[in-house]
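Retro notes - structure team

What went well: the batch runner handled both jobs without manual restarts.
What didn't: labels got mixed up in the shared folder, which is why I'm recording both outputs here explicitly, each with its sequence directly above its tokens.

Job 1
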Amino acid sequence: MKKTLEFKAHDGEIEDIALGPDNKVVTAGRDFQCCVWQQDQLVTGLRWHENLPGIPDKAYRYQACRDSGTFLGLGTVTGSVAIHIAFSLQRLYYVKEAHGIVVTDVAFVPESQPGRELLGGHEAALLSVAVDSRCKLHLLPTRRSLPVWLLLLLCAGLIVATILLLQLAFPGFL
């Protein structure tokens, strides 16, 4: 193997590292941060005081990370588990103290046939393993969105309403 890049990612030790899509790298460090990198450039990062106001930084530390391409799964030293959107790091799922103690690893259920059967109607499934000798499955409910047909119907209604208003405001418009 040949080293291609070296840079300082964290103050102190790196707890976990995961490779994501588009050559992105996710790191969880002992400095209480989780970072997404593109080469040696910081794309975005998470800190407890920004995402969970009122909870001091020192109370939690990211311990494990995995990036499925769409989602970022995180485990902490306090046993908490979270799922974030990978590109924006918006939190979608959080369970405080899902385990009694340190989450040592997290992994997304693969999108194979058995994995899809396990998912059921959920958007993602994350497995977490902890020092408490337990493995837990976390299911992310499918986010609601408007069906395409309803969106098209609303657009058509808006166009018709605009034409009618223009006809009322300017007689002889059409």
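Job 2
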Amino acid sequence: DFRGNGESDGTMTYGGIDNEIEDLALVINYFTNLGWIIVGIIGHSRGANVALLYASSQLRLPSLRFVVNISGRYQMKESFQKRQAKRLPDLYEKGYIDWEIKRKGGKQIYRIFRDDAEKYMSLDMSVVRRIPGNVSVLTCHGSADKTVPFEDSTNYSELIISHTLRIIRDADHNFTQQPQVLVNIITRWVEEELGIVS
């Protein structure tokens, strides 16, 4: 879990993806120091954005060979404005909005401050063009995703040198009805990337 999420300590901030990239780098460094060789990262939704941004950064490990982007968002500003359209006046008048999210076991309220929202909206995912050609990226997205439009995934195809796009028909954001389809696609692709013969 990233800071402030799940069982992790700390405070989660809506625009704090840079903090989450640091968290990912710390976890990777921890396992690298134990002797593990990290060749791939798989992330879902916001975690996919973190994985892609890590692979685009100078923090990236030389051993990294692939990233799997599951339902990662591309249009940050447009999506935030659309999802928070009714609350935007409050964001600029009060300086914050309270966003209620349904979670397992109940609801969670996130307070999003104006500067945090602006930081999130200014996030430029086009930096993925910095991912080198020796790092392959698989993007998987559901055609019925109501959280992140599957059209976002096509932007990654245009920017990443070594990119494969798989749109999974009728799948939602969490692939709730088709988890095994997703697993099979990722497994086969990773085996091909790593030259594993099954």
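One thing worth noting from job 2: The helical segments are 17-33, 46-56, 76-83, 88-93, 114-121, 152-159, 179-194.
We'll revisit the folder naming next retro.
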